[in-house]
Write a structure and sequence with these properties.
By secondary structure, the protein is α/β, with parallel strands linked by helices. It is built from 13 helices and 13 strands. The strands form 3 sheets. Strands 3-4-7-8-9-10-12-13 form an 8-stranded parallel beta barrel, surrounded by 5 helices. It has a 3-stranded antiparallel beta sheet with strand order 5-6-11, with no helix packed on it. Strands 1-2 form a two-stranded antiparallel ribbon. The longest helix has 22 residues, at about 185-205. The radius of gyration is 19 Å and the shape is globular. The structure holds flavin mononucleotide (FMN). Flavin mononucleotide binds near residues 83, 98 and 242.
């Protein structure tokens, strides 16, 4: 663990989790980190027409309002996903709504898309549009929206010009009814209209990739439909996946585990990797996948790549490991490449997918 993490983590962990998150954002805003050295060329990854300097991204939900994307890029992430942003500002659910399960290295959140709203986030992204680096935006619908599909379509049109890619997030467990949009008929209509909006503005905004982020709790029959629809509608990739509403049997922090919301972090890894592998075998290489859920080390990052991820994202692992986790993952991945004499991480993508799908379902 680096010097900064050793200093910051005890302070952050002494605070209420949401106050700690706010302080972490403030620290990134006002105490600029030293830039990390450029990445080794062997860590580069190409996906959705974009060149990623390394495959380690920060997942949606940390920088919901695009306050610190450039500080995060400087910290060594290969890409940053800001959001979820909703069209109109909304407060989200009442506090407390964020819980740390220290014994399990896990987090439960029921934030419910607290967002500064599209206008504020758009202003921030437009102000850094020429700064370089891959910054995607994750979009969602307002809780009280009369037309949720229209919310997504409108956000694609507004953000395509200032974001490296756009993620359609229909997998948050904390907006009632949102995950129903993963069902076939709604999803097909949503993706058709989202891709149509993207095409209409492509002449001015460029060919902004559109990704679909799904829940790890999707039944396999619904996953069949989701991947088939994503393929027909020509989305550029999928993110697998969001937090889980399930509670793995082995959780130790019993009291906190009873809180409603989405679980993330270490206990999510087996389910997230299973769903990733299931998605990989269905996508058949038509589009690349981003793996999220439970990455906390070089080993878990490599496991995710081997399960089918071309790129990975982390969030909860940072809560327990600090920003030093980014360098630790990159160093570990590079040493695997050197050990095996391989030129690129793409050699490992999905090599374990078939065997993972043959295993017993994770408990
Ligand atoms: C506090 C918190 C807030 C989150 N907010 C969002 C969000 O706004 N949009 C989204 O798509 N995912 C959100 N996520 C889910 C993460 O992006 C990620 O998919 C999930 O946490 C699994 O990764 P992890 O185990 O590395 O945390 C959030 C996760 C956490 C812990």
């Amino acid at each position: 663990m680096g010097f900064l993490d050793r200093l910051a983590l005890p302070v952050l962990h002494a605070l209420d989790p949401e106050d700690a998150h706010r302080l972490a954002i403030r620290m990134l805003q006002f105490a600029p980190l030293p830039s990390t050295p450029p990445d080794d060329r062997r860590l580069a990854m190409r996906a959705f027409g974009l060149n990623f300097p390394n495959p380690v991204g920060i997942a949606a939900g940390f920088d919901k309002n695009a306050e610190v994307p450039d500080a995060l890029l400087r910290a060594g992430f290969g890409f940053v996903e800001v959001g979820t942003v909703t069209p109109l500002p909304q407060p989200g659910n009442p506090r407390p709504r964020l819980f740390r399960l220290d014994a399990d290295q896990a987090v439960i959140n029921r934030l419910g898309f607290n967002s500064d709203g599209a206008a504020a986030v758009l202003r921030r992204l437009a102000a850094r549009a020429n700064a370089g680096g891959i910054v995607g935006i994750n979009v969602g619908a307002n809780k009280d929206s009369p037309d949720r599909v229209a919310d997504y379509v409108g956000l694609i049109a507004r953000f395509a010009a200032v974001a490296s890619y756009v993620t359609v997030n229909i997998s948050s467990p904390n907006t009632p009814g949102l995950r129903d949009m993963q069902h076939a008929a709604v999803l097909d209509d949503l993706l058709a209209r989202v891709i149509d909006a993207r095409e209409r503005i492509a002449t001015t905004a460029g060919p902004t990739p559109v990704l679909l982020k799904i829940a790890p709790d999707l039944p396999l029959g619904d996953l069949d439909d989701a991947v088939a629809i994503a393929r027909t509608r020509r989305v550029d990739g999928m993110i697998v996946g969001n937090t889980t509403v399930s509670r793995p049997a082995r959780l130790r922090d019993g009291a906190q585990a009873k809180e409603a919301g989405g679980l993330s972090g270490r206990p999510l890894l087996p389910l997230a990797n299973r769903m990733l592998a299931e998605t990989y075998v269905r996508a058949e290489g038509i589009f690349p996948l981003v793996g999220a859920g439970g990455v906390e080390s070089g080993e878990s990052a490599l496991a995710k790549i081997r399960a089918g991820a071309s790129l990975i994202q982390v969030y909860s692992g940072l809560v327990f490991g600090g920003l030093g986790l980014v360098a630790a993952i990159k160093t570990a991945l590079l040493s695997v490449l050197i050990r095996d004499g391989r030129p690129s991480l793409s050699d490992y993508v999905g090599v374990d997918a078939a065997s993972i799908t043959a295993q017993a379902w994770p408990a």
